[in-house]
């Protein structure tokens, strides 16, 4: 049990490190809070909540893996190296894919409801 609690502690250290050092991770956290607030405000369905939560999880996980890879690359290749650059670029590409997926999903869920509200006003 103690070991399990310690493992959670390490995981939260990792989350704290990403939040402290990565502006993009903080931006994604703010976007997640906005999406959840909008979800409550617009009374989205259970199915829509599942999509929103999936998007938040995918984006934050992609950002965390990207942060971990960047740190690893800096550790093993502090000097310029073409392959090190590719690793960072590919990892950043994964974050872009996740963010685009979240953006499109958010637009599909929220835009029609927001437009209805605007038309009704
Ligand atoms: N060791 C390296 N060798 C070659 N190219 C690198 C190296 N480190 C970084 N680069 C190139 O510079 C880009 C930016 O790297 P950097 O480490 O600043 O990433 P970042 O996403 O801006 O990180 P952070 O979010 O921590 O500022 C990489 O995507 C890569 O193209």
From TrEMBL:
<feature type="binding site">
    <location>
        <begin position="88"/>
        <end position="89"/>
    </location>
    <ligand>
        <name>ATP</name>
    </ligand>
</feature>
<keyword id="KW-1003">Cell membrane</keyword>
<dbReference type="GO" id="GO:0005886">
    <property type="term" value="C:plasma membrane"/>
</dbReference>
<feature type="active site" description="Proton acceptor">
    <location>
        <position position="63"/>
    </location>
</feature>
<keyword id="KW-0460">Magnesium</keyword>
<keyword id="KW-0594">Phospholipid biosynthesis</keyword>
<protein>
    <submittedName>
        <fullName>Diacylglycerol kinase family protein</fullName>
    </submittedName>
</protein>
<keyword id="KW-0444">Lipid biosynthesis</keyword>
<keyword id="KW-0067">ATP-binding</keyword>
<feature type="binding site">
    <location>
        <position position="70"/>
    </location>
    <ligand>
        <name>a divalent metal cation</name>
    </ligand>
</feature>
<dbReference type="GO" id="GO:0016301">
    <property type="term" value="F:kinase activity"/>
</dbReference>
<dbReference type="InterPro" id="IPR036945">
    <property type="entry name" value="DAGK_sf"/>
</dbReference>
<comment type="similarity">
    <text>Belongs to the bacterial diacylglycerol kinase family.</text>
</comment>
<keyword id="KW-0479">Metal-binding</keyword>
<dbReference type="InterPro" id="IPR000829">
    <property type="entry name" value="DAGK"/>
</dbReference>
<keyword id="KW-0547">Nucleotide-binding</keyword>
<dbReference type="Pfam" id="PF01219">
    <property type="entry name" value="DAGK_prokar"/>
</dbReference>
<keyword id="KW-0443">Lipid metabolism</keyword>
<keyword id="KW-1133">Transmembrane helix</keyword>
<dbReference type="InterPro" id="IPR033717">
    <property type="entry name" value="UDPK"/>
</dbReference>
<dbReference type="GO" id="GO:0005524">
    <property type="term" value="F:ATP binding"/>
</dbReference>
<feature type="transmembrane region" description="Helical">
    <location>
        <begin position="90"/>
        <end position="111"/>
    </location>
</feature>
<dbReference type="GO" id="GO:0008654">
    <property type="term" value="P:phospholipid biosynthetic process"/>
</dbReference>
<keyword id="KW-0472">Membrane</keyword>
<keyword id="KW-1208">Phospholipid metabolism</keyword>
<keyword id="KW-0418">Kinase</keyword>
<feature type="transmembrane region" description="Helical">
    <location>
        <begin position="51"/>
        <end position="69"/>
    </location>
</feature>
<feature type="binding site">
    <location>
        <position position="10"/>
    </location>
    <ligand>
        <name>ATP</name>
    </ligand>
</feature>
<keyword id="KW-0808">Transferase</keyword>
<feature type="transmembrane region" description="Helical">
    <location>
        <begin position="27"/>
        <end position="45"/>
    </location>
</feature>
<feature type="binding site">
    <location>
        <position position="63"/>
    </location>
    <ligand>
        <name>substrate</name>
    </ligand>
</feature>
<dbReference type="GO" id="GO:0046872">
    <property type="term" value="F:metal ion binding"/>
</dbReference>
<feature type="binding site">
    <location>
        <position position="70"/>
    </location>
    <ligand>
        <name>ATP</name>
    </ligand>
</feature>
<keyword id="KW-0812">Transmembrane</keyword>
